[in-house]
């Protein structure tokens, strides 16, 4: 049975993306008081622990965990350690709104990698047009920073490159979950990988950064708690969707085009030093049109469900 365009898959994907879109403000707030590795590591260790009560009553057998240990470590490395280590580093170089929109290129990276690594998940004309429009939006945002005119612009260009590498790491993590994650309950897999990845980031921070100070203001602790909650909830939703046989990695990740738009708007509202420009609005427009084009067939013909788009 095909999924209705307003069924649980799109709805859950939108909820996860809306949760993720709030991360940019929270991370920029926390980085004012703490190094990126220590902050990221603390966030994800706490996220993993928050999920333990949700899977403990149906915890897998030790033999199942050991048999899937390689998968857990791979997902932990790509989906948390590499993705968020690069993400937090990139956010020290670029404004929150710009970071939100660069992370919006993740559907393009996911689609290209899935084309080569996931059987049956190929590029299609509609998917290609949507992704190219999204890429044009990212290019507009990147070039609008004029990196050739100042050291600050060059730093932001480097930050954009770091964030694109983060996109690639996250896409590989998604592919591993989609291909090999069926033996593990998604909440347990998320809890394990996010805790291990966070612990790795925290350990890496020890020789390079100062430990988190207990005297940090309430805004820091509020950001840390919120970020830990959203990671626990959003990733659990996402892993559940990736396990559905009808869901393709590239198509699910197209919903992530919502993240840059919502994340940028929240950054402009909540971060006093950030504001919209003609270029940023133009880039957001391209990204929004990409989402509409991709989903237009299903919206025009809801009785047919989500088309295969081949």
TrEMBL record:
Q: How does it sit in the membrane?
A: Multi-pass membrane protein
Q: Which GO cellular component terms, listed alphabetically, does the Swiss-Prot or TrEMBL entry include?
A: plasma membrane
Could you list this entry's UniProt keywords, alphabetically sorted.
Cell membrane, Membrane, Transmembrane, Transmembrane helix
Transmembrane domains' residue ranges: 12-31, 37-57, 69-91, 97-117, 129-145, 157-176, 188-208, 220-242, 254-271, 277-300
Q: Which residues form the EamA domain?
A: 11-142, 158-295
Q: Which InterPro entries does the entry link to? A: AA-Vitamin_Transporters (IPR050638), EamA_dom (IPR000620), EmrE-like (IPR037185)
Q: What does the UniProt entry say about where the protein is found?
A: Cell membrane
> Which named protein is this?
Membrane protein, putative
Organism from which the protein derives? Syntrophotalea carbinolica (strain DSM 2380 / NBRC 103641 / GraBd1)
